[in-house]
Amino acid sequence: MKPITIKYAWMDGWMATILAIVITLFMSTAPSYAGIVDQQDQKSESMENGGNVLPPKAQPKGYSLSDMAKATAAFNVTNPRPDVFPEVVNGKPFQGLFITPANTTNTFNVKRGTMLYVPVSAIDDSPTIVGTFPKVGDQKALEFYTYNHSQLGTQYINITVDGKVTSLDDKYVVEVKVPPLPDGNGTQYITAAAFLTPLKRGTHTVEISTLEDGDAICAAIGGCPPPFQFSVVYNVIVH
Fold first, then answer.
1. Which of 22, 53, 171, 214 would be 26's cystine partner, CB 3.0–4.6 Å?
2. Which pLDDT belongs to residue 47?
């Protein structure tokens, strides 16, 4: 069955990946990555232009992916507003790429040298809980929940910078314990995200995309439509 492709110009919050499935379908990344791998010449060009996906264990400016998940979870599950961006994703020290009501063109203006934090998908254990939510710290359970077809059934998680695709593996998926979240008092938060190196001066595109077709999603909405393929394109202007 052919997947449905959804491209958003705007949505309330980062939760676009799961919201594409859960709000359109219910309520918001091992190894099957659709065979997308950067070629060497693409890597070389990407290195020159910046926008490289850092390794999952990298800690730029002292922040790990888990640190960023904790810092941004409450923001991510609500309706983001530019005036309430967490400091760590408002250009200090990173610029986060998010969908907000005030930014209908998904355009971000940043200073040269700014690193980007790019979440692709997010979900928490606020009701309605989808599938068997894993406990924080159980990496095997997290991988099973993310990729197994009985749960979310994630097929791929991609970040595309200026046309160059990088597939994120399971090491980019983190789960953290957080204070009760504003979308329903959940305390466990999962996100797939990556840090990008600074882009060179000029205008760039950063696309996030994923495909999920797990049985847990179907169960949560009381039926199963075709797989949902989700993507959002951000415009990043570096001054």
1. 22
2. 52
